[in-house]
Specification:
Layout (H helix, E strand, L loop, with lengths): L4 H14 L17 E6 L2 E6 H64 L1 E6 H6 L7 E6 L3
Parallel strand pairs: 3-4
Antiparallel strand pairs: 1-2
Length: 142
């Protein structure tokens, strides 16, 4: 059955009168129960699945979950490294304290066992005998 040109125009007018544009659709406040959205692509009306709209957020959430899992895997290693660092700091502190004590003992031994004597090089050379317990500090006269 072929339509005449007049019938085609009549059908077209009825379709246009009953058609709705995207702008004239009801607006909802929630995506609950909505499976797709109408959209206009060029001159065509198309359906856009909700999953397509949420894909960037879903991908970002998946990456965030992966990152969180990696952090959870690294946490025990980081804790062990922290404990090792604390032990090394404690050992370094103990070693520094021992070194300071040894330096103090050395200073005390030097102070108790040796004399310090300042003199010119000429005076030093003229000494008949040098004392092994004396530290001679020789200075130049100007």
């Amino acid at each position: 059955m072929a339509f005449t040109e007049e019938e085609k125009q009549e059908i077209l007018e009825v379709v246009k009168a009953e058609s709705k544009s995207v702008e004239s659709l009801e607006t909802v406040g929630s995506l609950s129960g909505v499976k797709s959205l109408p959209a206009q692509k060029g001159d065509k009306l198309v359906s856009v699945p909700i999953t397509l709209l949420s894909k960037p957020a879903d991908d970002a959430a998946a990456r965030a979950i992966e990152a969180a899992e990696r952090v959870e895997e690294l946490a025990p290693e980081m804790e062990a490294a922290t404990q090792e660092t604390k032990k090394a700091i404690q050992t370094a502190g103990e070693s520094a304290a021992k070194a300071e004590a040894a330096a103090k003992k050395a200073e005390d031994a030097i102070a108790q066992g040796y004399k310090h004597k300042e003199m010119t090089e000429e005076d030093f050379e003229s000494l008949p005998e040098k004392d092994g317990k004396t530290i001679y500090l020789i200075y130049e006269e100007e």
